[in-house]
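Hi support team,

I submitted a single chain yesterday and got back a structure, but I'm not sure I'm reading the token output correctly. Could someone confirm the output below corresponds to the sequence I sent? I've pasted both exactly as they appear in my results page.

Thanks,
R.
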Amino acid sequence: MRSSDLDIVAANESAAYEHPWTKRIFVDCMRSGYQNWVLANKQSIAAHGVMSVAIGECHLLTLCVHPDYQRRGYGRKLFNLMLDRACKLEAEVCFLEVRLSNIPAIDLYRSMGFRQIGERKNYYPSAEGKEDALIMSRELPLP
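Hi R., thanks for writing in. Yes, this is the structure output for that exact sequence:
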């Protein structure tokens, strides 16, 4: 992800999520040295993700696929790339939170070997107020 990608990344967030990250959040992630990735061709950015990696672990902060590109394997492809990068940075475990209602994402993470290790009550904003999150993890590297 480059700073020149941020307008498109923010637009993709808005297209995909009811409560999207702002461009400013992505700027902060880039300044913090997080792993910031896009999956793109010359015409568009299909997906983006942000991951922190430190002291033997990584934490997926966001993984977003534009609605026009969902259900084509792009989320899996980008997440695998990010996990491979985390392994090269010596991460041994990955953590993530996911909305309880985001069944496609939960299915993706489970298919990649992630298991639920907890819940965070009232973690995400929602139209009804707050929504719970599942906490998931898996050891690295991927097979």
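A quick pointer for reading it: The beta strands are 35-40, 45-54, 57-65, 93-99, 115-126, 129-139. Let us know if anything else looks off.

Best,
Support desk
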